[in-house]
Amino acid sequence: QVQLVESGGDSVRPGGSLRLSCVGVGIDITQNAMGWYREAPGNRRELVAVFNTDGAPHYLDSVKGRFTISRDNNKNTMYLQMNNLTPEDTAVYFCNGDLDGWGYLPRVADFRSWGQGTQVTVSS
């Protein structure tokens, strides 16, 4: 069964850093379009960082210069390095992408499943 396992979330103070990990189980996530999403209370789940079909990284405007998306092919793992965190970054973070060979990145509403996510809390 295909599964994505997110980890690395924690509670940190503003200005702190975290590195999130997304491990693919039963699926190669190193070559396909993959992204990091987050959902905060009262907000829709949104894409914050992504490797698109061209393999290039793209970022939500509010995280540019602070977040870096990367992948380790040998570990079948995707990472999100988050620096200079702010309270507005507080959310549950998920990874997802083209796991079924569509050749494109689906809309949030079109994903058939999600992992458990990992909680990031930024507060003083």
Question: Can you characterise this structure?
Answer:
The chain is built from no helices and 10 strands. The chain is mainly β and 124 residues long. The strands form 2 sheets. The chain has a 6-stranded mixed sheet with strand order 2-10-9-4-5-6, with no helix packed on it. A 4-stranded antiparallel sheet has the order 1-3-8-7, with no helix packed on it. It has strands at 3-7, 11-12, 18-25, 34-39, 46-51, 57-59, 67-72, 77-82, 91-97, 118-122. The radius of gyration is 14 Å and the shape is globular.
Question: Could you outline the blueprint of secondary structure elements for this entry?
Answer:
Blueprint: E1 3-7, E2 11-12, E3 18-25, E4 34-39, E5 46-51, E6 57-59, E7 67-72, E8 77-82, E9 91-97, E10 118-122
Parallel strand pairs: 2-10
Antiparallel strand pairs: 1-3, 3-8, 4-5, 4-9, 5-6, 7-8, 9-10
Strand order of the largest sheet: 2-10-9-4-5-6
Estimate percent helicity: under 10%
Largest sheet: 6 strands, mixed
How confident is the prediction overall: mean pLDDT?
95
Count of helical regions: 0
Give the oligomer, counting copies of the same chain as homo and different chains as hetero: single chain
Order of helices and strands: EEEEEEEEEE
Please give the number of β-strands: 10
Contiguous low-pLDDT stretches (5 residues minimum) are none
Please tell me how large the radius of gyration is: 14 Å
Distance between the termini: 40 Å
**Proportion of residues in extended strands:** 35-45%
Structural class: mainly beta
Morphology call: globular
